[in-house]
Amino acid sequence: MYFLKPISDEVRLSQLIFNRYNKTMKLILGSIFGCIAAILQAAGGYLPGIGYFLSPLATAPILLCSMFSIPFGVMSYFLTIMLLFILQPTELIVFPFTTGLLGLGIGASFYFFRKRLSIITTGTILLMLGIMSLLFIFHFPVLGPAVSDSFSFLTTGSIFLFAFLYSWLWVEIALVIFKRLKMIIN
Prior knowledge:
By secondary structure, this protein is an all-alpha fold. The protein has a single domain, classed as Arp2/3 complex 21 kDa subunit ARPC3 (Orthogonal Bundle). It has helices at residues 10-20, 23-46, 51-54, 59-68, 70-87, 99-112, 116-137, 153-185. It is globular, with a radius of gyration of 16 Å.
């Protein structure tokens, strides 16, 4: 079955190659990934219209950095949060709970799990918890004004379905990007 196939060992091999770099090179790469994520996330506020299509792409740099190294992924996640505090403070509530958390979760799950379904499920759970926290705990209208901030099973089921499909999409995108990026880094 497609979901139970193991992900190739290329990810683990690239983690070993990344660990051969000195600490300065790792910090530079993590910082670059964090800066790219901050610029993409801030685009939603600076470029109305097209910026909303660029903003979800902030997941990719955090995801890729986390695939190489979990500590440097966490570093780039927090660096992005700090940069967003300066660039676009309105995105501070969205990034840590949605795009950033998804990238960090999927990237870290590539390290811990081998099966595609386990990786997708990790991303789904984290994204779902992030969206539900924003919606039901902080009463932040992350899904727009059409969705009520009071708990309902229909809303929760819809969030789960969206989170699963979105996580699946990002896992597949990450594998494609990772294979291309691996050729550049090696």
